[in-house]
């Protein structure tokens, strides 16, 4: 009998210690039981408790249950309750419960979804979800999906595909020859493009200085009339869902023209692409199916757990070529291997949660989820507009509400006070040169009562600010 090393003895003991996994489960249940009623941001004490983690790397091997207990004691209180109904910061998203359960179960499987042979079950579900996404968004049969960490990476993959295809058309194989000396590409996008688009362009060596910026209207939509002449060396980047106002670029007016000119059209639809799954909101994305690539998140509007993003590309060959990696030990399968459509090789099988949530909600449930976010955002805007002292600055076409008080100073002070009250959590932004409060309704858990309660916190915050004279300088 081979002897176990002391470390192996400890690890085998942990592996078989049911209490370890039971306490994780119990702590998880505790969190879920209270998260909806929690204050919408960790308390000062909870944040101070994080100093518990300041320690040197321990010398000796520790106790697994002790580690779990410490995370429960000092980590859980400092967790931001984005699962609840009154967190409106950034564009985040809650979690559909079956996604949590499936993530929990499948994390024990510890699957690597790089190749079919490494995880047939993950590969199978990637096939299935790819088909469902095509159908839901009305995309062509040739469209392939890469399952990545988020829209930042999805944008990067899509723009790499565009770079590959547009250069190859000019007789330049960028994989072989690189960018030095390559024929020029044109990049056209709206002034309101998301920062992750710019990041992808600079990572791809395309730079940002030569972008042809197109003016936007007051909602942040690219103005179709301001679009320059396009050609077959052009990469046109459009947006479904402006990160402040939620506005959508005018796809119908632009895509046909861009197609005819031979341009590559990419749509950054991190949260907004899901409008295409709502009967009532579908008009916002009309025409986007004419694009060549799309980036969308699971973890925002669809409420999958983090992290989950998807690149969709109608030109499968361009996507695979852009991310291609060859090595002798790779087993090429006739069926799809996930890693050919993602930059990573080893990759967690995030498709499990995505599959589970899409299967659970079904077409009707996805529609109800997306449409519900819009309803709550409309309610937020209506109730705030009815209050003295707040104005809603955007057309609430999707889930975003942009709010301001009479002056920047008052807006800033009121925002700070709302955050102190912790009844709801909202963040700040700048919109049309004004300081604003940005409300993003992203969780299925936000109820009509949550909105009313949050609006009451806005009112109280402004009253407090006025009473103390803060923000009164203007
Ligand atoms: C959130 C967002 C991104 C980035 O997505 P991540 O999933 O955070 O990487 C890109 N574009 C838009 C419009 C977004 O809202």
Order of helices and strands: HHHHHHEHHEHEEHEEEHHEEHEEH
Specify the biggest β-sheet: 7 strands, mixed
Radius of gyration using CA atoms only: 24 Å
Question: Fraction of residues in helices?
Answer: 40-55%
Bound compounds: pyridoxal-5'-phosphate
* Helix and strand composition category: alpha/beta
Report the count of strand segments.
11
Strand content: 5-15%
Ends apart, CA distance between termini = 81 Å
Strand arrangement across the biggest beta sheet: 1-7-6-5-4-2-3
Number of helical runs? 14
Overall shape: it is globular
Mean pLDDT: 95
Provide the low-confidence segments as ranges: none
What does this structure look like?
This protein has 474 residues and is of the alpha/beta class. It has helices spanning 6-15, 18-35, 44-48, 64-75, 97-109, 120-137, 151-169, 174-177, 195-203, 251-261, 316-322, 351-385, 408-421, 448-468; strands at 144-148, 186-190, 212-214, 234-239, 264-268, 293-297, 309-313, 391-392, 400-404, 427-431, 434-440. The protein has a 7-stranded mixed β-sheet, sandwiched between helices. A hairpin with a 7-residue loop joins β8 and β9. α5 (97-109) runs antiparallel to α12 (351-385) and α12 (351-385) packs across α14. The longest helix has 35 residues, at 351-385. The N and C termini lie far apart (81 Å). The model has no long low-confidence stretch (mean pLDDT 95). The structure holds pyridoxal-5'-phosphate. Pyridoxal-5'-phosphate binds at residues 91, 150-152, 194, 196, 239, 241, 243, 268, 270-271, 297, 309.
